[in-house]
């Protein structure tokens, strides 16, 4: 009878140890899944941010290029006006 109770106690200890190991494994699995989910979300955030920055830079460059075109055209019109004025002065001088 004593040997049987010893076996039953060892059996209960093994079941308890297995249960604890399974709980720890489940906890570790859940933590791993949580960190993997966080990592994936951070990667998505980073990609979205990079695309937003690139889009913003593209828009900014486009606006600056448009503004630069307008300024260049305006400056050229001004220069042509000066040349035209000088041309008329030269014509009337002769």
UniProtKB/TrEMBL annotation:
The organism's place on the tree of life at top rank: Eukaryota
Nucleotide-binding listed as a keyword: no
Alphabetized InterPro entries for the sequence: ATP_synth_b/b'su_bac/chlpt
Keyword Glycoprotein assigned: no
MF (Gene Ontology): proton transmembrane transporter activity
Protein's GO biological process: proton motive force-driven ATP synthesis
Similarity field: Belongs to the ATPase B chain family.
Protein function: F(1)F(0) ATP synthase produces ATP from ADP in the presence of a proton or sodium gradient. F-type ATPases consist of two structural domains, F(1) containing the extramembraneous catalytic core and F(0) containing the membrane proton channel, linked together by a central stalk and a peripheral stalk. During catalysis, ATP synthesis in the catalytic domain of F(1) is coupled via a rotary mechanism of the central stalk subunits to proton translocation.
Name listed for the protein in its UniProt record: Uncharacterized protein
Protein source organism: Aegilops tauschii subsp. strangulata (Goatgrass)
């Amino acid at each position: 009878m004593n040997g049987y109770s010893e076996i039953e106690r060892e059996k209960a200890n093994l079941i308890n140890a297995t249960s604890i190991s399974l709980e720890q494994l489940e906890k570790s699995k859940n933590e791993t899944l949580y960190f993997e989910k966080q990592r994936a979300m951070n990667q998505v955030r980073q990609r979205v941010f990079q695309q937003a920055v690139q889009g913003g830079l593209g828009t900014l460059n486009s606006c600056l290029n448009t503004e630069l075109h307008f300024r260049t055209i305006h400056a050229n019109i001004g220069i042509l006006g000066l040349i035209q004025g000088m041309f008329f002065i030269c014509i009337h001088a002769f």
